[in-house]
Design brief:
By secondary structure, the chain is mainly alpha-helical. The chain has two domains: 57 residues; 45 residues. It is built from four helices and no strands. Helix 2 packs antiparallel against helix 3. The longest helix is centred in the N-terminal third of the chain and has 52 residues. The termini are far apart. The model has no long low-confidence stretch (mean pLDDT 79).
């Protein structure tokens, strides 16, 4: 009987310790999440700069439906359509649509305000 009580107490301590370690690990990862996102964004900017200097253009992988929405000045709808068609996150979709909007503006020579 004493053996089982000691065994259960030891088991509770071990499982409690593992739970505490997992909680602390989860908290430390969520606290550093912003730093990781910032570092990834920084690396992406560097790669974009390298590709630009090498003469390699931006990926032209935007679906035609999104291009048409941007040409029509429907930027929010274009972002939603990009997300729906590609499954991308909103930040990525917004960046791609903004890039496409600038590209369309340059091609048409439009210097007016943003259509938002």
């Amino acid at each position: 009987m004493v053996f089982w009580i000691a065994f259960l107490v030891a088991l509770v301590f071990v499982l409690g310790g593992l739970f505490a370690v997992l909680v602390l690990f989860g908290l430390s990862r969520s606290a550093a999440g912003g730093d990781v996102d910032w570092q990834i964004a920084r690396l992406e900017r560097k790669v974009d700069l390298i590709l630009t200097n090498m003469g390699i253009g931006h990926d032209d992988h935007v679906p035609e439906r999104v291009v048409q929405l941007v040409r029509d000045g429907k930027v929010p709808e274009a972002v939603e359509e990009y997300i729906r068609l590609t499954g991308s996150r909103r930040t990525i979709a917004r960046r791609e649509v903004d890039y496409l909007r600038q590209k369309v503006k340059a091609a048409t020579g439009d210097t007016g305000p943003n259509p938002e």
